[in-house]
Amino acid sequence: MQTMTAELEQLIGKVIGDLGGTANAALVIVGDRLGLYRTLAEVGPATSQELARQTGTHERYLREWLAAQAASSYVNYDPATKRFSMSPEQAMLFADENSPFYMAGGFFSAASAISNERHLAKAFRTGRGIAWSEHHDCLFCGTEKFFRPVYARNLISSWIPSLGDMPARLQAGGTVADLGCGHGCSTILMAKAYPASTFVGFDSHPPSIERARALAAEQNLTNVRFEIATAQDFPRIDGDGYDFVSTLDALHDMGNPRGAARRVKEMLKADGKWMIVEPAAGDQLEENLNPVGRVFYAYSTSICVPSALSQDGGESLGAQAGPAALEDIVTSSGFSSFRIAARTPFNLVFEAKP
User: Fold this and answer.
1) Deepest in the core among 111, 129, 304, 343, taking most CB within 10 A?
2) Mind listing the pLDDT tens digit for each residue in 131-159?
3) pTM flag (> 0.85)
4) Does residue 341 sit in helix, strand or coil?
């Protein structure tokens, strides 16, 4: 008979925690879609009956959902009053889409990865890639939801200012290409912050460009537009070079990152700058064996590496490439300068100059 060692008990506890998180991913998405977190944060403390009336949902489903959320510590439960509530911290993570700490979007992307696991298993055997367009649409909305708060918190306030005179140049009026813009969250943030400059968001995924155009139209922005193009073939703007090119959490998804780097150098003005934002990582595997690296490696295996392998080029950096690999990509493509300009617990911000 096998005995329960301390090591086995510890591992079982960890796996149970992981299984609970995985099983609750769909429930987080339901809570986000139906506004359950938002309403509870606004009207709580509330019983399941009270919250059901407020949200127009079926009480029995809601009662079980609330129990699962309380067991996950995503909401609080008071046994004395049988009411549920959300702390300010819980609300920042799940109820407020404008919070810089909003995390629900990550569960959408996780759901997409799970739904695609049979395609991923086949890709393991064949070596073929899985294009961005082949994923469940939860990935696209999840990417928008997950990254928009991060960009809102950092892009204008710290990342662009870390590039020396770039804020002043954009305030005076410059030209900007945002490569791999997705739904255009980063492009729109920059266009709003620097109305004198002209911004073009490029992405190879047509539905994402449609979504970006709709978001820009909703905000009546006239200094931004969105075009379908890859990072290897995006065009000049009005026949001139760009003052600034940004590539946020996208270079590692490209099958030909060196080709992208060469194209950026070709499209930049002589005194232009390229800002590359990538997930935080060290150069050695052992540096990334931590909770943040665990998330990034998981998404990289199911989304980023397959995306790169689906494209021409044959190179796949992965989401934990590290500064040395990125520097090699950039400097081997003709850039004279490459440096880490800023960092957060989740991101590294690089500046490259021709």
Assistant:
1) 304
2) 988 888 778 888 888 889 999 999 999 99
3) yes
4) strand
Are the CB atoms for 179 and 260 separated by under 8 Å? yes
At 275, the amino acid letter reads: M
Domains along the chain with CATH numbers: 6-94 (1.10.10.10), 150-353 (3.40.50.150)
Cα–Cα distance between 351 and 247 in angstroms, integer? 11
User: Amino acid identity, residue 319?
Assistant: A
Using the 8-state DSSP alphabet, how is residue 300 labeled?
A: I
pLDDT in tens, 183-225: 999 999 999 999 999 999 999 999 999 999 999 999 999 999 9
Model pLDDT for residues 5-27, shown as the tens digit of each residue: 999 999 999 999 999 988 999 99
* Three-state DSSP class for residue 38: helix
- Closest C-alpha to 90, from 73, 66, 110, 67: 73
Backbone torsions φ then ψ of 239, nearest 5 degrees: 75, 5
DSSP letter string, 107-165:
HHHHHHHHHTHHHHHHHHHH-----GGGS-THHHHHHHHHHHHHHHHHIIIIIGGGGTT
Q: Cα dist. 277→52, 74, 156, 237, 326 in Å?
A: 42, 30, 13, 23, 11
pLDDT of residue 1: 60
Strand 242-248 to 224-228 pairing: unpaired
Rounded alpha-carbon distances, angstroms, from residue 352 to 160, 231, 299, 330, 336: 13, 16, 26, 7, 8
